[in-house]
Write a structure and sequence with these properties.
Blueprint lengths: L2 H30 L2 H9 L4 H11 L2 H29 L4 H30 L4 H4 L1 H13 L2 H16 L3 H22 L5 H15 L2 H4 L1 E2 L6 E2 L4 H10 L4 E8 L2 E9 H6 L13 E4 L4 H10 L4 E6 L2 E7 H9 L5
Parallel strand pairs: 2-3, 5-6
Antiparallel strand pairs: 1-7, 3-4, 6-7
Helix pairs in contact: 1-4, 1-5, 2-3, 4-7, 9-10, 10-15
Length: 332
Amino acid sequence: MTPFEQAMWWLVVFGALTGTGLFSGMETGLYFLSRVKLEVRSAHGPRASAARLLRRELEHPERLLATNLIGTIFFSDLLATAMTELMAARGYSEKTIIIANAAVLTPVLFLIVETVPKEIFRLEADRLPYIFAGFLTNVRRLLTVFGILPFVHIIARFSTRLVGGEGEAGLTAAAHERIATLLKDSASGGAMSESQAGLVDRALAFRAGSVGDGMTPWYRIRTVPSDWTREQVLRLLSREPLAFVPVVERGSDGARVVGVIRFQDAFLRATPGLGPLLLAPARLPRRMSLAQAVMELRRAQAPIGIVEDGGRAIGLVSMSDLLVPLIGLEPV
């Protein structure tokens, strides 16, 4: 082997070490990344573009884990190949190379490209993932263009059907379990208290939830017809003290919610009909995220939301319903 070839192989070793350490560190850094800070930074600030990239990648944990796994395996194999070539060039036998790899190189490289990068990214979880967000996204796009990532997904789905597993949903759940485990480890080590770990865990559940998860089904909602008088509504609210009562108008295409009446308005405002008492509720798709639904309710006249599917009311949510995963308590 010529000196130039040796120099090139040493460059490969350096690049493979860097790549393996980067993917190993990024995996841990993404687990310890503050989702609250991520949401804030994605809205504004100097790191907004990087934060938005990270948020998009984290919305598909199965794809993110596959990208990290492929990158780690690629650079690890490249490192092993380069070290083997360099040792062979110095005249070592195949048996000696195998023993050296198993007894010396593997433990040392594990320390350099696994333990140290993971610890660095854990300590700098709110800084380093933003720096390498573009790199991670470009690697994922490159793997997709070359068909490697789709091929891995096809193999994963085929294997799942063969063994009867849970597929990508199971992989996503596993990712969440790994995050929860890391949080517990941090709490036991003093880096994070149990209450802080619980808060982050609830924040992750809040981000993953949708309006349909927290709504009260429509068949359990007490409604009143739009042709009722105020006196009829008062008699109803005297028997059933509801905070809000939806008003529906029945037509040839079914019942349509025209507004909601607030309990105190019905008793305090003397009106000839229900029209002046009606408040416009937020109309929310069942698949809308909880965070988006909270913003919609804040903008609505009445802090109540009618959950719709294809223009048809299928449920009702209040602000307390939406915040249940975050506060960890059932609504009163």
